[in-house]
Give the backbone structure.
Amino acid sequence: MSENKNNIAKLSLPNGNSYELPIHSGTIGPDVIEIKKLYSDSDHFTYDPGFTSTGSCKSDITYIDGDKGVLLHRGYRIEDLADNCDYLEVAYLLLNGELPNKLQKSAFDNKITTHTMVHEQLALFFRGFRRDAHAMAVMCGVVGALSAFYHDSTDITDPSQRLVASHRLVAKVPTIAAMAYKFSLGQPFIYPRNDLTYSENFLHMMFSVPAEEYKIDPVLAKAMDKILILHADHEQNASTSTVRLAGSSGANPFACISAGIASLWGPSHGGANEAVIHMLNNIQKTGNVHEYVKKAKDPNDPFRLMGFGHRVYKNYDPRATVMKKTADEVLKAVGKENEPMFKLARELEKIALEDEYFISKKLYPNVDFYSGVILQAMGFPSSIFTVLFAVARTVGWVAQWNEMIEDPEQRIGRPRQLYTGSSERDFINIQNRI
Ligand code: ACO
């Protein structure tokens, strides 16, 4: 971050006082106006619900240009990473800042692989949940409970403990996710296999049963890997900011990631691909796709086409381009190209891309539109979609958490407020209240 000496913002208040606020430039992206001392100097806060104009930290990890449809991790385009790397390569990049060489990659793969098992006693935890519990509820509980099992990696002041905790989280969250899924089905937990890649192992833990051999389809393993890569990090979104805020108090990493999972669970964040499938099911029931498009365009109808539009990307979501190609490959591999739901998805995509309403408002299919379609075709129930998102995003959360802990400017997060309640008033005893 560099201070742009020629650029000082001037703030004048109605009381006649004025203040000079330094402007900083990042490597790319908009400049930021520093307001750190505004309160102590001027006795004023800024007001920004939803933090739409507020930068909460410096970060070297991810850059998004929503207008141009660009997503970079450590400077590399997401399309290049998705085309050329496997998930653990991207995980290494996010955690360490550079792509690994061959030696570093195999050491990292080995490190993660040897941490995939969970403490055997953790399996007993699951028995305390109802079988029909939402898998995200189980994830919040069990991932948070890791701090009760791995005491030797909860001292956040020790860099070696932070590293072990980071590896444990990336390695164990898929195991816990698969256990949550198996528990909901009433099937036995499947132990991880060290001879498989990260994505192959995840499919194995999710879909195999002890009674028969499970053959991993390489097209599906590749698709799983791409889905994980495309969801690995996305700058300071709600769940990542939650992880940083929880961590700013010095909370242990397992508790912080559990907080991130809780935030991701919300339908405005991680639940959109599940909503896509529900919408496609509903359209299928009525059989009239044009009616739904009409409803989406009606300003008096709150209905929106799920999987279209994005808060940040006002051009094409670069992740959606990769997903679309993967969706085509998966549908072909599983022979579902002509199933009604997937034909409907293509029809909807075509109508929306050609419709003036969607074109003029720059509402393109987003990553969730295609990931919903792919995951459904791969045999994942829609209730587990957000869990897969949590598996992918864990490395992003962990990278951002580490960056925050190592930032010398880091302080406990403590936003302020515009108080709108009652001013001080006299207390009234209960017998005198009317
Ligand atoms: N269908 C129909 N109209 C839409 C849609 C949609 N999916 N999305 C936006 N619009 C319209 C709005 O009604 C609004 O119209 P107006 O200008 O006439 O008022 C205009 O497009 C702009 O929409 P905003 O709500 O201002 O856009 P915002 O950036 O706030 O919302 C959001 C983005 C929440 C993603 C929205 O597009 C949406 O609800 N999409 C459907 C849900 C979805 O797919 N979410 C996943 C996002 S991807 C992700 O989180 C990984």
Remarks:
- The chain has a mean pLDDT of 94.
- Strands lie at 2-12, 18-25, 32-33, 62-65, 70-73, 76-77.
- The longest strand covers residues 2-12.
- The two ends are 59 Å apart (CA to CA).
